[in-house]
Design a protein that fits this description.
Strand order of the largest sheet: 2-1-3-4-6-5
CATH topology: Rossmann fold
Radius of gyration: 15 Å
Strand content: 15-25%
Number of strands: 6
CATH class: Alpha Beta
CATH architecture: 3-Layer(aba) Sandwich
């Protein structure tokens, strides 16, 4: 588990001005830390796709936004990512909570299957979102890495720099609840 205060400090190092989010249980501690600190403005949106549109508008206006959403909602964002993130070349860090990761990773099966099928996706032993998120990121051309615990927190700055260099969204998959 990564500590919310460490993530918050890393976001400040990147001069983040706004975090756009649809709250979920895994990001609760981070959102609480952001609200308590007050230096970075939190904007709650109604749908995850809306987060990308608002983030693009903030970026055009000279701000430095980050999107914080759950993997389930990320799968809903396809056109928003394409139309406002990738096509507009918005250098955007996406912190994506990875619901279902622990169970999928513990299964012993390939973590990122090359071939998806109905048998795998309908298996009630797994959260199908956990199975779909990495292949979706690859298909959409979004580089990604993992944020498992406190030792991975510096990856936030690295992913932020990569988004700036590539001029496109870059994702960090948060595999555990923040504390």
């Amino acid at each position: 588990m990564a500590q919310a205060r460490l993530i918050l400090e890393e976001l400040k190092k990147c001069h983040v001005t706004h975090v756009l989010s649809v709250p979920d249980n895994m990001s609760r501690a981070l959102l609480s830390a952001l609200w308590a600190d007050g230096e970075i403005e939190v904007i709650l949106v109604t749908r995850e796709g809306e987060a990308f549109a608002v983030a693009a508008g903030l970026w055009v206006g000279g701000k430095t936004p980050v999107v914080l959403i759950q993997n389930t909602g990320f799968l809903e964002t396809g056109d928003a990512v394409r139309g406002t993130g990738t096509r507009m070349r918005v250098p955007l860090l996406c912190l994506i909570t990875y619901r279902g990761y622990a169970k999928w990773a513990a299964s012993g099966l390939e973590a990122t299957p090359e071939t998806l099928n109905a048998e795998l996706l309908s298996n009630m032993a797994y959260d199908s979102t956990a199975i779909l998120v990495e292949p979706t990121l690859r298909a959409w051309g979004i580089p990604y890495d993992f944020l498992h615990d406190d030792t991975d927190v510096p990856k936030i700055s690295a992913a932020f720099r990569k988004a700036q260099e590539l001029e496109q969204p870059v994702a960090l998959l948060m595999t555990k609840d923040t504390t």
